[in-house]
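This follows on from our talk about sequence and fold. I would like you to pick a protein and set down its sequence and fold. Go ahead and set the record down below:
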Amino acid sequence: MIGKQLSDAEFKKFSDLIYQQVGIFMKMEKKELLNARLGKRLRACQLDSFQEYFDFIARPDQQKLEFVLFLDSVSTNFTSFFREVSHFEYLKANVLPELVAKKSGNRDFVFWSSASSSGEEPYTLAMFLNEFGGQNVGFRYKIMATDISTRVLAMAANGVYPIEQTTKVPHDILTKYFQKGLGNSAGKVKVKDDIRRQVTFQRFNLMDEFPWHGEMDVIFCRNVMIYFDRQTQEKLIGKFYNCLNKGGYLFIGHSESIASLKHDFVQVEATTYKKI
């Protein structure tokens, strides 16, 4: 395997499979990256060629566990606490008061972090919602956090992070919602249990059909659609629209736009959309 390189034809086979399964469009300039990541899976499976590995994961009776690990290896996961914090500020100042004002019945509000990665986004969301709930008696919420990668979901559920990943967290929030590691855990922090209990992590592929219809109040899908082509983006936006309650909100990444896509959302901020 030393020095083994993906051919252009092999790259196309894998990139087509990735696109079919998770909607990520890989350009040819990603060939070296894919070569390095797949090389690790070949060694783990003790296979001698990329073609053998492709046959192994792509056959009808594919090895389900290895296919999940394959997708883990090619997914990109970058996030941080309080990333694009203006979204959370808008949520607190505008969205949450609006949701509370129009609430009917005795139900929990439902928030979905649809590409949660290693958990920083849904935990940040939980902290904001907990702060809001402290000032609004009876405010109850659930956070569903999903990702395609089982590896980052395991990290998220554990809730342990290097302390340097909390540099954007305000000091009062840091002391209130994190535990500082001691001894062997020095240099790390852990999200406190009362916040971790507010978030349910599960594996979900955004390319699959959504089992929810009109159930969500707020969806975060940030810095994900940049990896999809127009057709996939448009289909995904439609599915988000359908699973939101009337008056629900969608937040996308600051580097993203759906302005050129066909959709039924009304834009209320630069990267914030509402189902009217």
Q: What stands out?
A: The chain has a mean pLDDT of 92.
